[in-house]
């Protein structure tokens, strides 16, 4: 038997208390950071407060309706970062995780929870990584300008706004560092621990997290360099202003003495 799994990142935090009131679903599990709903016909809906939502055995219509209820606005689900997998129940007692398919002995609540947790982490990483690439590309524009022209057309206000974007992204990641932690389920059940390890390995959670941090470090290094250039430019401007004022004062004194 096969089951479809799809994960989305909404690009914002999910306030679970408000969501619990707005969604009329049966809660199978809940903690301060997640809600796991058990729906009809073996369907599940999993919400993480850092903005990920994962569905098992849900139609596009049901998915869109659920997300619109959470966001309280009309949306197109194609606009959100997403990942899709197929769950296949097979006779083997072992878990197998491949490129786009996960083979499991049977679909239980805990197995569903473990799979949805990892996919929620993965799609959140995609969202953060794409944001970091966008910011990295913007820094490349200015470094290329510096290479070609020897200066950058970047005002102090624009630089401060750019730094603000970097800090907001870093703060968002720091706030959700538990995104990359191993679930308690992996520690309490040996089989679930194996499933968690295989999924984290296949989804490259740790490697992608390191790549994200590397991008942010490169961006921060470039911004520090830009800041130094603009500070030097500002200091030079002040020096010239002072020189011109002194020159004006000298000329004024000479004019008074001569005339």
List the helices and strands and how they pair.
Layout: E1 2-9, H1 16-22, E2 26-31, E3 34-38, E4 44-48, E5 52-56, H2 60-71, E6 82-89, E7 96-97, E8 101-104, H3 109-149, H4 156-175, H5 184-188, H6 190-203, H7 205-258
Parallel strand pairs: 6-8
Antiparallel strand pairs: 1-5, 1-6, 2-3, 3-4, 4-5, 7-8
Helix pairs in contact: 3-4, 3-6, 3-7, 4-7
Give structural notes.
Strands 2-3-4-5-1-6-8-7 form an eight-stranded mixed beta sheet. The chain has helices at 16-22, 60-71, 109-149, 156-175, 184-188, 190-203, 205-258, and strands spanning 2-9, 26-31, 34-38, 44-48, 52-56, 82-89, 96-97, 101-104. It folds into two domains: 2-118, TATA-Binding Protein (2-Layer Sandwich); 123-258. The longest helix has 54 residues, at 205-258. The mean pLDDT is 82. A hairpin with a 3-residue loop joins strand 7 and strand 8 (101-104). The protein is built from seven helices and eight strands; from the N terminus they run E-H-E-E-E-E-H-E-E-E-H-H-H-H-H. It starts with a strand and ends with a helix.
Task: Supply database-style keywords.
259 residues, alpha+beta, 2 domains, 8-stranded mixed β-sheet, 7 helices, 59% helix, elongated
């Amino acid at each position: 038997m096969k089951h479809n799994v799809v994960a989305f990142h909404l690009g914002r935090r999910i306030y679970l208390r408000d969501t619990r009131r707005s969604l009329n679903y049966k809660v199978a599990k809940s903690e301060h950071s997640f809600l796991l709903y058990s729906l009809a016909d073996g369907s599940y809906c999993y919400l993480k407060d850092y903005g990920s939502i994962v569905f098992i055995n849900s139609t596009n219509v049901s998915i869109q309706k659920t997300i619109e209820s959470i966001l309280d606005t009309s949306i197109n689900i194609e606009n959100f970062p997403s990942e899709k997998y197929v769950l296949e129940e097979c006779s083997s007692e072992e878990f197998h995780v491949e490129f786009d398919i996960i083979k499991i002995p049977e679909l239980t609540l805990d197995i569903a929870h473990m799979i949805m947790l990892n996919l929620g982490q993965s799609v959140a990483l995609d969202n953060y990584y794409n944001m970091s690439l966008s910011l990295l590309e913007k820094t490349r524009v200015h470094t290329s300008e510096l290479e070609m022209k020897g200066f950058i057309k970047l005002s102090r206000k624009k630089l401060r706004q750019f730094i603000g974007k970097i800090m907001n992204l870093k703060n968002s990641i720091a706030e959700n560092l538990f995104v990359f932690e191993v679930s308690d389920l992996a520690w309490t059940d040996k089989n679930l621990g194996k499933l968690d390890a295989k999924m984290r390995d296949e989804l490259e959670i740790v490697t992608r997290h390191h790549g994200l941090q590397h991008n942010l470090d490169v961006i921060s290094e470039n911004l520090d360099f830009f800041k130094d250039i603009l500070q030097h430019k500002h200091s030079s401007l002040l020096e010239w202003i002072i020189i011109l004022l002194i020159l004006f004062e000298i000329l004024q004194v000479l004019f008074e003495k001569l005339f």
